[in-house]
Amino acid sequence: MEANGRRCAEPGCDEPGEFRAPPLEGARDGDGPGPFRWLCLEHVRAFNSRYNYFDGMTADEIHHAQRPLAGWERETRAFARAGSGDQGPRWADFSDPLDAIAARFRREVAPERSDGKPLSGQDRASLKVLGLAADADRMALRRRYSELVRRYHPDRNGGDRSQEAMLQKVIAAYQQLRQAPAFA
Q1: Are 177 and 130 spatial neighbours (Cβ–Cβ below 8 Å)?
Q2: 146 — pLDDT class (breaks 50, 70, 90)
Q3: pLDDT (tens digit, 9 = 90+) per residue, 84-123?
């Protein structure tokens, strides 16, 4: 840390106070600990060499603090279960002005097929490329594919090659959907 004009807190030292140290015993500001002291390198080294965490503890207290599982015997908050008294925080307790938390868990209601056959995410994306509804059948799939190939193929649209990328997407979508379980 740079001294920013601070001098070492040790009496008689004119070196810059670059290193933070705890306040002296008994120096407190109301409720919390007192302000930090700023020491030069020589005096912070001296402070650290004198520091003893176990100073003032009995042998039993030292043994208790050094045992391998110290601190692990406390009970932690249980995961919230239905009917348990220890519930986690509610979403309403959080302020989410940018919709960062809720957007992650929001799901659009996906249209389902009337025959109950499942659609994967890739199936849905392919249906979107072809412009078909989720409950389209195999015949509707073939008709739409033929229509789009005629529209985008350079041989059918006067040699316009600007639509080739879309043609490739249509072909890939059709190939994927014709092998999908929903269209089998």
Answers
A1: yes
A2: very high
A3: 555 556 766 777 777 776 666 666 555 678 887 888 888 8
The closest of 148, 97, 106 to 126, measured between CA atoms, is 148
Token look-up 């932690």 returns 76
* Residues in Cβ contact with 27 at an 8 Å cutoff, skipping those fewer than 6 apart: 34, 35
Structure tokens at 72: 């692990």
DSSP state letters, the chain: ---TT-B-SSTT--SB--EEEPPPTT-EETTEE-PPEEE-HHHHHHHHHH--TTTT--HHHHHHHHSTTTTTTSPPPPPP-TT-S-----GGGS--TT-TTHHHH--------TT-----HHHHHHHHHHT--TT--HHHHHHHHHHHHHHH-TTTTTT-GGGHHHHHHHHHHHHHHHTSGGG-
pTM: 0.41
How distant, in Å, are the alpha carbons of 6, 12, 28, 150, 173 from that of 143? Answer: 81, 94, 82, 11, 14
Reference 174, options 165, 183, 161, 162; nearest CA is 183
**Domains, the chain, ranges and CATH?**
1-70 (no CATH), 86-184 (1.10.287.110)
Distances (CA, A) of 153 to 73, 160, 161: 71, 8, 8
